[in-house]
Amino acid sequence: MKKGIFIVILLVLGYNSIYFKKLSEVRNQQQTSFDFKTFADSLYYQGILKSNNAVELSQLSALVQSNPDSAFKAYGNRLGIGNSAYFMVKGEGKVIEKQASGLKVVTDTHTILMVDTKYIFGNAIRDASGLVKLTDFKTNADFNKLSEALNNVIREKAIPEDLKAINVGDKITLSGATKLSKTQDKSTTLSILPIRISKTE
Questions:
Q1: pLDDT at 16 over 80
Q2: Type and span of the H or E element at 163
Q3: Which CATH class is domain 2-199?
Q4: How far is CA 134 from CA 42, 101, 110, 117, 186, in A?
Q5: CB distance 194 to 95 below 8 Å
Q6: Where does the chain cross the membrane (predicted)?
Q7: With contact defined as beta carbons under 8 Å apart, do 51 and 132 qualify?
Q8: Domain residues of the chain, as ranges?
Q9: What's the pLDDT tens digit per position in 68-108?
Q10: Who contacts 71 (Cβ-Cβ below 8 Å, separation ≥6)?
Q11: 137 Ramachandran zone, left/alpha/beta (phi>0; psi -120 to 50)
Q12: What does the pLDDT read at residue 20?
């Protein structure tokens, strides 16, 4: 009996100690007990925001045009093979439009950024971060639940606070995720799912 109680205590302590840095423990959690919301919150605030893996937009754009293979190898993250990858990017620009669905920003290099602040869905931010992988979870469904929880943290909690102080004409710094393909048209418009937006003083 004492041995059984000891095992239960160890399991509880193990669960409470899980952070994104200990993803090897995730696969040991039962689906009914794993708290995706808490884990996503930790992944965002303690992982993604503190990570330095975002590449400058101007640097990435130049490299994608001159040597896409090198750009994708150095900065892209993807789960499988193919011509597309997710990138964590950062940059600065001026807000030229502010709508309910997001911001339109122009950079100093005349790149137009469409920053979607309303429809933050899918796996772009999860995969661009490079901090989690499918093998950390028991099923694809669990892996996708993490994306949903992470997107909710950003869409409903983080970004609305960022947007309160931002208006048309403001200069901002921005970090977020984007999906690029080696075969896509090299246009001057880039779609970004934001993870942080800050007004430049």
A1: no
A2: helix 159-163
A3: mainly beta
A4: 18, 30, 37, 26, 30
A5: no
A6: none
A7: no
A8: 2-199
A9: 899 999 999 987 677 889 999 999 999 999 999 999 999 99
A10: 60, 63, 64
A11: beta
A12: 52
- pTM for the predicted model, two decimal places: 0.81
Q: What is the DSSP string of 168-192?
A: TT-EEEEEEEEEEETTS---SEEEE
| Whole-number pLDDT of residue 189 | 83
Give the model confidence (pLDDT) of 48-73 as tens digits.
Answer: 999 988 999 999 988 988 898 999 99
Question: CA–CA separation, 163 vs 166, rounded Å?
Answer: 5
Residue 27 has pLDDT above 80, yes or no: no
Helix pair 68-75, 57-66: axis angle to 10 deg: 140
CA distance 177 to 86: 7
CA distances from 24 to 15, 103, 133 (A): 12, 37, 10
pLDDT at site 188 = 67
Helices first, then strands: H and E counts in the chain: 7, 6
